[in-house]
Amino acid sequence: MAEVPNLPLLIGGELVQSETTQWRDVINPATQEVVARVPMATREELDRAVANAKEAYQGWRNSGQGTRMRVMLKLQQLLRENTGKLAEMITREHGKTLPDAEGEVGRGLEVVEHACSIASLQLGEYAENAASGIDVYTLIQPLGVCAGITAFNFPVMLPCFMFPLAVACGNTFVLKPSEQDPSATLFLAQLALEAGLPAGVLNVVHGGPDIANGLCEHPDIKAVSFIGSTRVGTEIYNRASAAGKRCQSMMGAKNHCVVLPDADPEVALNQLLGAAFGAAGQRCMAASVAVLVGEARNWLPEFVERAKKLKVNAGTDRQADLGPLVSANARKRVEGLIQQGVDEGAKLLLDGRGVKVPGFEAGNFVGPTVFGDVTERMQVYTEEIFGPVLCVVGVETLEEAVAFINRNPNGNGVALFTQDGGAARYFQNHIDVGQVGINIPIPVPVAWFSFTGSRGSKLGDLGPNGKQAVQFWTQTKTVTARWSAHGRTVNTTISMR
Asked: Where does the Aldehyde dehydrogenase domain lie (predicted)?
């Protein structure tokens, strides 16, 4: 039997073995095999990582934009070359299928490609003679040491939503990945160092709540980005804000997919299958509620039949549609919520509990599950299940669907399937959700647009990616200057009108 590796920390450009006495097993969710051990870092190790980032900041902030751009160009090349290796790490520790894991790396790569444009993204404004003889201009400057705390469900994409733009803007960074699947995140950081980030610019510290709280409260950290559950995200935001830090907290969701009767049923049903059950539903943007309008409700039996044909297997099977859930506890929680839905009176049209995969009998598998007759007071509707469970609601009109969705406290993403441009325009104008898909089931925008979840799904006014991310990771300094020409008389009277 191969020896289980102890994962190191990344501090000051070096891989460092932690001196902690607390370790956590990293488990392959398809086999229950322990594939690594991750340290719960000490506070001294966290302080050392922040100190290294603070020291590195003095040189990195003054590096040229061209220098930072070239690091991002090299990193995107390394991500392309190592997509397969990263995907294997994701599948081994998270469980998602290899094609899905490769797609995740691709979405992370997209953000790095966007960061390659930093020379045009980090531009200020200039006004000559804003007043007589006075020029006014802005400087878009980095903040200092920044931090990121990521969830388990995208161990490559979520870190890419954070550190590439942050360091491209001239900040340094301390990253805490999920302790459930940290290997891909650590390897990603190593690739960033190989791409040319100086020692200390990017550090990785493993741990649990103590490390997360330490990042929020550390006096030398200026900004914290979090992506994960609502419960943890609210705590992170409150702690970081109370400590005087800038914070963005992208949290839980209950995403709806509205299907109008004029939609192409072949397209709508197949897209809904992937959006509801892809990655075993472990996506904050998963379509977990289908709202079928009018005659579209007649398509539900066909949808259930298609869901029955989806293949559940270990993520290493490239033909699999769903892999396992990330942990045994996650499986038990999802199965408990399914039973709760039955007890509350929802109609269980397809039950994914009890799935056994030959050769992977110990895996954390839950198959596609579909509930009909769901009401907005049922727990399967009010709670983010984070598993392959779809709740189906029927309404008569688009207006009724919009009102139903707007009553939900979350606002991460929503989708509409229709061939009616007027209906689509009404929907995008009246729906109170931050990210809207029109004939797109998972409306995560391309990386040069910002991730704009809203309401109960987000704390903080600026989201990851796009222009908002550059604003989040920088501060604007306005300079008002007057220079007298040597040997010349300059009119210094300023009109206050």
From this structure: 17-479
